């Protein structure tokens, strides 16, 4: 029984750690499918994390923070699109530049505005997304196995974890069952054909990158206002790159996509010495 | 991808001073203008900040020494990224390669220090380059033979390098009397590289013999890329892989060659930092130089002279920026990173924003003047 409980708790932690990775990997997949390499996932998440925490702490509302996070990420995404699509710039250089600018800008602004050495003030109460107890979780929590799984594993996460879980089928539907999704996939595989069909490649790529920015914005907001309680410099710590690798590794098919992303935190939980990977075990 | 790749260093039909001087300058000015806006936002005076930055970088001999010391690192990483660019590759892993190069330097300086200085110093330099090259070999092999995306693999190899070095410094090579901080014992002093001589006034700065090495390597780089068959083959593969294959040049061989050289050059950062300054292997000595190398190579148009100028610029920003964070109340040292990022953005990603207009202006003038003749 103990092994069962440990497994459930481990999976529970995995859900929480995997949430930003799932969202960012879906974001990366969207731009990848539209034919734009986006190594700026990291920067977008970091920017969103900062904007969300800064707005949440000044307004006292986590939801306004989420809006700000998405807005910041969308702005960075448009910058990427402006450089790569409008001016045909190098996509890797652009993503890299965004990562570096944001890595410098967030502590600079944080230092100037909050005077806390680049952090934002600690968030509490309504400034954070708190965990939600699903209906009947307390009532059936004592039922062995099923009740326990429901109460511990499925219930008790914050809203963004459920958003990430919902995002997977939604993105799958949009990408594979809608006209917009078909066009996004077409523009990635053969932009000339799309152009010949009378559809604007530029506008389509801007739209796809907007979706990327939107998803990255949620992922970044999760880091600072749901998972953590405030912004810390470099708090993405390579998650954007991990997500990018995950979205590459499965060639963009969602059902497979989830697995590498979710399984990433598991082995690394036990390696507390490794500083770079340590953030994954800080659940 | 191939359409964006061939953009690097593509020939243009406007006067050389425009494409090599004016356009980079305009991009630079744009980056500084936006940086000025950021400084305004955080509530300081951008003009005063610029003054402090320039004085901090060139105002007195010791500052010049520091500037040149940073320049040395940027020349190494700039050349490293540039040789990969010439082959159409994007080496984001210079950071990790430099770190692993530090392991090579450390092994030579720690375990072979019974040798006299004329043997151990070349050995350390060589091992640093070999270790860096070895670290670049794996992503290169994966790209050449398996088609893995080299951007992804080199990024991931930075993380692996970091973890490997953390493990080695914490568990294996740690100096027990260093109070638990993850670093090795100090190298014995005959392995240290010579500092700048007294009469230059830079003896107190970390500037050392590596600067000469950087200049030498720049010359070798020029000769290798433009005057040897290997360099030619690397450039052909970078500009048109199918043409290279048709001409009997093996793309995979040249990808591996370019990346090995790239990694080796990145390893020289460890020579400057460890043999020249810190005299021990420690964490984080690579300090982001590998990433800035990308900006240096882009601004320098992958040419040694351009790389030297760009490296000097970034060296000045690094040194001046440190001064900036001491002098100005609302600016901390991350401002330097913002400026770097903006320079990469404008001179790399947005390089086509001003270029067509400026080139169009000069082309029009040229055709007018020829028509008059």
Structure explained in plain terms:
The complex is a heterodimer of chains A (283) and B (373). Chain A has 283 residues and is mostly helical. Chain A contains 14 helices and no strands. Chain A has helices spanning 2-33, 41-59, 62-86, 91-114, 137-140, 146-154, 159-177, 179-189, 191-196, 201-227, 239-249, 254-263, 265-268, 275-278. In chain A, α1 (2-33) crosses α7 (159-177), α2 (41-59) runs antiparallel to α3 (62-86) and α7 (159-177) crosses α8. The two termini of chain A are 23 Å apart. By secondary structure, chain B is an all-alpha fold. Chain B has one domain (45-328): ABC transporter involved in vitamin B12 uptake, BtuC. Chain B starts with a helix and ends with a helix. The chains are: A mainly alpha (283), B mainly alpha (373). The A-B interface holds A 37, 39, 82-84, 87-94, 96-105, 107-109, 111-113, 118, 233, 238, 241, 244-245, 248, 273-277 and B 1, 4, 7-8, 38, 41-43, 90, 92, 149, 151-152, 155-156, 159, 162-163, 166-167, 170-171, 291, 294, 298, 330-332, 334-342, 344-345, 348-353.
Task: Provide tags for this entry.
heterodimer, A: 283 residues, mainly alpha, ABC transporter involved in vitamin B12 uptake, BtuC, 14 helices, globular, disordered C terminus, B: 373 residues, 74% helix, disordered N terminus
